[in-house]
Amino acid sequence: MDFNHEQFMQLALDLGSSAERLDEVPIGAILVHDGKVIGQGYNLREKSGKTTAHAEIEALEDYNRRTGQWRLPLETALYVTIEPCMMCTGALLWGRVESIFYGAKDPKGAGLEMLLPLIEKGVFDHRFKVVRGGVLGEKCGSALSQYFKTKRSKRGA
């Protein structure tokens, strides 16, 4: 897989900006196979009223709707602006994502990286070939920090 990681992460950041315009947490995610986007999503929890409307889940569901398939093609990569949470990590395992590239680390530390030792140990029936954080990490982290800073200042006003 010879992807331009920064280019794909920028697309995820752009999706995060779409979420922010809807007053959602600015997280975006894309699924890539053979250099093409096959699914995309951004946070929609507030607008949809759904607990599970995280960017990664929305990208998986976009792929599912387009293809009628639950299993992703071999060598599918996910690009997401923040480290996937526990729920999204589980969905990515079930969908058979091969590689995960994320921008900012989860500040609570309760997501993918925490589960990775169990995944690598073979506790689940799928393993990720590649997990890499920090792709446009500063940009991704800054987008999230700025969003929450703006939300706090509006609450205080």
List keywords for this structure.
6 helices, 157 residues, globular, five-stranded mixed sheet
Q: How are the SSEs placed, and which strands pair?
A:
Elements lengths: L4 H17 L6 E6 L2 E7 L2 H4 L6 H13 L9 E6 L3 H10 L3 E6 L7 H10 L8 E3 L4 H20 L1
Could you characterize the architecture of this molecule?
The protein has helices at 5-21, 45-48, 55-67, 86-95, 112-121, 137-156, and strands spanning 28-33, 36-42, 77-82, 99-104, 130-132. The protein is α/β, with parallel strands linked by helices. Helix 1 (5-21) runs parallel beside helix 6 (137-156). Strand 3, helix 4 (86-95) and strand 4 (99-104) form a beta-alpha-beta unit. The model has no long low-confidence stretch (mean pLDDT 94). It has 6 helices and 5 strands, in the order αββααβαβαβα. The protein has a 5-stranded mixed sheet. The chain is globular and about 50 Å long.
Q: DSSP helix count? A: 6
Shape: globular
Percent of residues in helices: 40-55%
Q: How large is the share of residues in beta strands?
A: 15-25%
Derived from helix and strand composition plus strand pairing, the structural class reads alpha/beta
Based on CA atoms alone, the radius of gyration comes out at: 15 Å
Largest sheet: 5 strands, mixed
Biggest β-sheet: strands ordered side by side in the sheet: 2-1-3-4-5
